[in-house]
Amino acid sequence: MSQELEKVSQALQKIKPTEERIQNWQQTLLDTFKWETQNLNEVMRVDVTEYLIANPTSEHFTLLKPLDDKIKEFKNLATLKSTERKEVTKNINGMLDRLMLPEKSYLELSNILSPVYVSIKKLQDDQLRKEEARRSELNNFRMQMQTHFNTCQGNWDKYIQTEITSKYAEALKVVDEFTVTLSEFKDKIVEENPVTDFSFPQPTFDRTDVQKLEIFQDVFRHWSNEKLCTKFMTLLNETFKDFQIAQTQPEAALEIRKAEEVVEVAAIEDVVETENMMAAIEEKAAPVALIPTEAVKELKRVWSIQIEDTMVGMSTIHRAFFANRNELMPLTRKKTFLGIDANDMIKMMCEYKTKDENFCPQGIVFTSQMVR
Prior knowledge:
Blueprint: H1 3-14, H2 19-44, H3 64-89, H4 96-99, H5 101-174, H6 182-192, H7 210-220, H8 225-239, H9 243-248, H10 250-285, E1 300-305, H11 311-323, H12 325-328, H13 342-355, E2 366-371
Helix pairs in contact: 2-3, 2-5, 3-5, 5-7, 5-8, 5-10, 11-13
């Protein structure tokens, strides 16, 4: 017997249907049937109808977390079932397609839920951006109202200073015991500056905007005509307190009053500038909603090939590749067949499947999932 015939004889001895081998195959088929039945029934019991929302609204924001959890759960189950299936099918490649149904089903379920998740997430992000823009608008409006308040307050404070100086200069010229008494002159000043005069110019804004109206009212609730009038009267009385002495040296007294006015007006302007600066700082520091810096990416379909790591699997890959080599070779930089291995072939076929979903070489089983 030649050496080649001896090898054939030894190989035939190994595959003879011994009792042990028959029992092993029977057990394998039984285990396979149990696994197949159990897992297919498990997949059939999965219900995701509550998450299938055609037109999501802001009311569905609460579904983002459970949707994300479900997607992750199905992907993990798909990986788990793939591992289990490979252990079951390592000796029964012919049953591969049916045994792959559970993992394909979980992947398909995750693909069904992923667009719903992305749709709701985009809607939520859009609403958050609108809310952020609105907060920014209201923060800016509050700064404008506070600046208007400070400016009006400062203008009245400066008016009080300049008006008292003007009346003081006039009094030094006209007040005497024969023509106009000091009491009469001061009464006239008070009549010319009633409490109602110490008001502020009304700012222009849309008063139908309830939030802006509330901000305006909140800022200007501190405004008081009475306080300004009291401030005016206090300075009036303080300035005219020693008026009889001032009448003996009117020019000197007036210069002193003008110098006091300059100092007071400068201080008022410093206060207004500081308060306006603080209003601007508070506007910038006001909290706003945080928006994810990375926008939600569009889903894209990614293809993969399910193939057993066996000689049969390798042969199937090679046959499929060489049957379609004219379409696949332009997808690689490698110029010779010797430099291309099985992984390269799988990668090229998946890439070509992305371009042409009708691409289905004989013996090749494609699966896909939606990823961002």
